[in-house]
Write a structure and sequence with these properties.
- Strands 9, 11, 12, 14, 15, 16, 17 and 18 form an 8-stranded antiparallel beta sheet that branches. A 6-stranded antiparallel beta sheet has the order 5-6-3-10-13-8, with no helix packed on it.
- Helix content is 3%, strand content 48%.
- The protein folds into 2 domains: 143 residues, Mitochondrial biogenesis AIM24 (Double-stranded beta-helix); 69 residues, no CATH class.
- The termini are far apart.
- A hairpin with a 4-residue loop joins strand 16 and strand 17.
- The chain is mainly beta.
């Protein structure tokens, strides 16, 4: 059964917003606080997506434990969604044949037929200085994810290496391991910790990979000295 939701992406690739035309009496799951505008026929309620938050203090980019559920009551409703970081938005149709692995901050929206779960909780401070999560999307339905900067799709057949700070999503048909640039391998450590300086992810197999054109970490490092501090 198809669960495709009509959509369009506007203002990409720098400041993309996602516009969904939610069919009458249908529901869509959206990143908390990402709704920008909507028709009045859309009714919203916050809910916890099953299996995501057991023992987890942060989720979906670190702002909320909840996903907002929007239902179009009686007629089609238009929903404007704005990701938190300026960049692009990509659609992927999840099916029983292939699931999707996504950095947690990249989640934007999905149809309720898609199951989302946490693949791995990172070691705090091990790579990037904070706990990050890799989400796994399975089931049968629409899924949208976002990036910092433009999204570039790379078909992989064999081996491929990407700096961890640029990874947005990849199909679960790909195998992966994290290693540092000097060659020290973490083959048994499928971490899902992206953004760690000096680390790359080595992919193998066949499937699609999506990377972002910019890395958020250098921007954060640049802005860090300008943060207001308390004087003694």
């Amino acid at each position: 059964m198809s669960h495709k939701i009509p959509y369009r992406v506007e203002h990409n690739p720098a400041y993309a917003s996602l516009v969904l035309d939610v069919p009458a009496n249908e529901t869509v799951m959206v990143e908390a606080s990402a709704m920008a505008a909507m028709d009045t026929c859309l009714k919203m309620k916050a809910k916890m997506k099953g299996g995501l938050m057991k023992g987890v203090g942060r989720m979906l980019g670190g702002e909320s434990l909840f996903i907002n559920e929007f239902t179009a009551e009686g007629k089609n409703g238009e929903l404007y969604i704005s990701p938190g970081v300026p960049g692009d938005v990509q659609h992927y149709y999840v099916s029983s044949k292939c699931g999707l692995m996504v950095q947690s901050s990249g989640f934007v929206a999905c149809s309720p037929q898609v199951q989302i779960d946490t693949k791995f909780q990172g070691f705090k401070g091990f790579f990037s200085g904070e706990s990050l999560f890799l989400l796994k999307a399975t089931g049968d339905g629409d899924f949208w994810f976002s990036s910092y900067g433009a999204i570039i799709e790379i078909p992989i057949a064999g081996d491929y290496v990407v700096d961890t700070g640029y990874i947005v999503a990849f199909e679960d048909t790909l195998k992966y391991s994290v290693e540092n640039i000097g060659g020290l391998s973490f083959k048994s450590l499928k971490t899902g910790i992206f953004g760690g300086e000096g680390f790359v992810c080595r992919f193998s197999g066949e499937g699609r990979l999506w990377i972002q054109s910019h890395n958020l970490s250098p921007l954060i490092n640049f802005l860090n000295p300008f943060r207001p501090t308390k004087s003694d």
